Amino acid sequence: MKPYIFGKRNTIHIIDIRETVRGLLRAKKFVSQVVARGDDVLFVGTKRQARIQVQAQAIRAGMPYVTERWLGGTLTNFRTIRSRLQTLEELEKAQADTTGKYSKKAISSRLREIRRIQRNLEGIRGMTRLPGALIVIDVHREHNAVREAKKLAIPTVCLIDTDSDPDFADIPIPGNDDAIRAIDTVLSHLADAVEEGKKARTATQATEGAEGGAPRKRSRRTSTARAEEFAGDDGKPSSSETPVMARAGELTPATDGST
To answer: Which residue has the higher pLDDT, 34 or 106?
Structure first.
């Protein structure tokens, strides 16, 4: 984290806001391209400070999210996760049956099972295939999600604090991952990038439909390579990205973590 730290004051490391802006600009550009080519982005943030913001921004962008507990195998064993969601649908249909053929005990037990599955999987209920990228808040806490993504060559965009390892993220965004305002600001910009990508996706599909051509597919290795390319950019903002610079002051640079 040394390249991203501006200085140290009273045992508190201060993150360089310029590096935060560079990382955010790279992340916005990459996320927009991922969505534009037809892939979804999975928002991940299970810590208490991030849950509300992650859910709100993911719903606004129309993307899947995980805000409770990351279940092992959510990506690497996706087929089993989908089967659990099918079980949820069956349980909900049975629960909606009002014919009275089930006992009160059976109804109560089924209701508890429905609530348990909904709590863990409600955010990815509409995710029918693996995402094209992950947006992660705090890689130190969400290390299981990041490891699964790396195993499947799914690129990750991560908000990292001074107590995290930037090598775990394909595109790191240095910032305070404990401050609600900082998390909301970063996620808001990334959700805007998702919406821009959706507009580009719609335009591309309309063009391909008019030409009668099939959409071109990219491999996940290509996606990871593109993420590494973005991570190596100098991150200089263009004139169209000045609104991000204007709001950079909203990002909380100070954090209590250690290198």
So the answer is: 34
